[in-house]
């Protein structure tokens, strides 16, 4: 069985989730080819254990993400089972590649075995769907749901220049000034809800986030109530799905639609003044207190680590 993995990149480096994609592929067994868009992290990629071949795709189109252009270049190199990350870019790329090579796509898997039995959560995390695939398909895997492959590999490295294959490509995407780490990419997320009282109080979350290198998210109630909190920060059923190692929910009640986007986080910490708040039902650690009481000491203690 051939397996093609699309390396996840960000900020001109290989994203850690790429090793998790390889880890999952190693469990399936087969010959693994890793595609590195723009050649980003090609050496590091070739050293991931289990990878047989790295195809480093060079070309103008890789200067900025454009799923149309990227999938045009990548599709001819996709063979067998194609695996990408379930990030926003990974999902978009997966759909485009699946349509170009004419195979099914299954998004956001949290489990897969050698018989291609695949699991993912549906209905806001209330049920687990199991499906199987025979033959080629494109799948995306949720971050942190799979063990990373180790290092120590020595894959063959091939460079392909695809400049002439793409006629239209995005040249530059300008990030908004001062934009923080995106919640769907971060390994630690601290989110605020309506319990934060007013948008200016999100500065307290930013301060904790700066100490631990976290992204800042929000509940829909916070996003809907305050123009200063953009929709891009929303976690949940109609926002982003996150799966970080640590999720800290502050002043968030824990409505089912919010849980849908974060309940699979490895560790969940909740700060809420209401001991009966549903968020405590999914939290590994709960602090029954106002955020005004809890956040300063949390920040102080985290800064000591
Ligand atoms: C179709 C649909 C889709 C939805 N999609 C989403 C989604 O994607 N994401 C999402 O989040 N929601 C979503 N919702 C909304 C969801 O149902 C809830 O209304 C929302 O999550 C509530 O946000 P909240 O917990 O911030 O606010 P609230 O429910 O108002 O809870 C605020 C919490 O803060 C606590 N609190 C108050 N003051 C303090 C303080 N000083 N210190 C500590 N704690 C305090 C309170 O005890 C309370 O638990 C959706 C709803 C629908 C119908």
Secondary structure blueprint with pairings:
Blueprint: E1 2-6, E2 9-10, E3 13-14, H1 17-28, E4 31-37, H2 42-46, E5 51-58, H3 67-74, E6 81-85, H4 88-101, E7 105-109, E8 111-112, E9 117-122, E10 127-132, E11 137-141, E12 156-161, E13 188-192, H5 202-212, E14 215-218, H6 220-225, E15 246-250, H7 256-262, E16 267-272, E17 285-288, H8 291-304
Parallel strand pairs: 1-4, 1-6, 4-5, 5-12, 6-11, 7-11, 13-14, 13-15, 15-16, 16-17
Antiparallel strand pairs: 2-3, 8-9, 9-10
Helix pairs in contact: 3-4, 5-8
The protein binds flavin-adenine dinucleotide.
Structural category: alpha/beta
Compute the CA-based radius of gyration: 20 Å
Fraction of residues in H or I helices? 25-40%
CATH homologous group name of the largest domain: HUPs
CATH fold category name of the largest domain: Rossmann fold
Question: In order across it, which strands form the biggest sheet?
Answer: 7-11-6-1-4-5-12
Average pLDDT rating: 93
Order of helices and strands: EEEHEHEHEHEEEEEEEHEHEHEEH
Largest sheet: 7 strands, parallel
- Beta percentage is 25-35%
Per DSSP E runs of 2 or more residues, the count of β-strands stands at 17
Enumerate the distinct ligands.
flavin-adenine dinucleotide
As for the number of domains, it is: 2
The count of helical stretches stands at: 8
Assembly state (oligomeric)? single chain
Structural shape:
globular
């Amino acid at each position: 069985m051939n397996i093609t993995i699309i390396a996840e990149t960000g900020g001109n480096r290989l994203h850690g989730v790429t090793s998790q994609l390889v880890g999952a592929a190693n469990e399936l067994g087969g010959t693994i080819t890793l595609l590195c868009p723009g050649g980003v992290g090609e050496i590091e990629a070739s050293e991931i254990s289990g990878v047989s071949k790295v195809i480093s795709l060079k070309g103008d189109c890789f200067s900025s993400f454009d799923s149309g252009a990227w999938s045009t270049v990548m599709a001819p190199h996709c063979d067998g089972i194609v695996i990408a990350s379930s990030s926003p870019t990974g999902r978009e790329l997966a759909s485009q590649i699946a349509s170009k090579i004419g195979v099914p796509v299954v998004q956001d898997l949290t489990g897969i075995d050698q018989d291609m039995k695949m699991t993912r959560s549906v209905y806001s995390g209330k049920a687990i769907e199991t499906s199987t695939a025979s033959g080629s398909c494109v799948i995306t895997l949720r971050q942190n749901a799979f063990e990373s492959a180790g290092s120590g590999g020595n894959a063959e490295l091939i460079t392909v220049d695809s400049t002439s294959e793409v006629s239209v490509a995005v040249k530059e995407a300008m990030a908004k000034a001062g934009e923080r780490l995106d919640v769907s990419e971060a390994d630690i997320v601290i989110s605020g809800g309506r319990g934060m009282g007013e948008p200016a109080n999100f500065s307290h979350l930013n301060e904790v986030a700066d100490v631990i290198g976290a992204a800042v998210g929000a509940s829909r109630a916070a996003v809907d109530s305050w123009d200063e909190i953009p929709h891009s920060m929303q976690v949940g059923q109609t926002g982003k799905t996150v799966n970080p190692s640590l999720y800290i929910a502050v002043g968030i009640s824990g409505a089912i639609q919010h849980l849908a986007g974060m309940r699979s986080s490895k560790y969940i910490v909740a700060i809420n003044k209401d001991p009966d708040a549903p968020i405590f039902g999914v939290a590994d650690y709960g602090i029954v207190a106002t955020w005004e009481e809890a956040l300063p000491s949390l920040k102080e203690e985290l800064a000591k680590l």
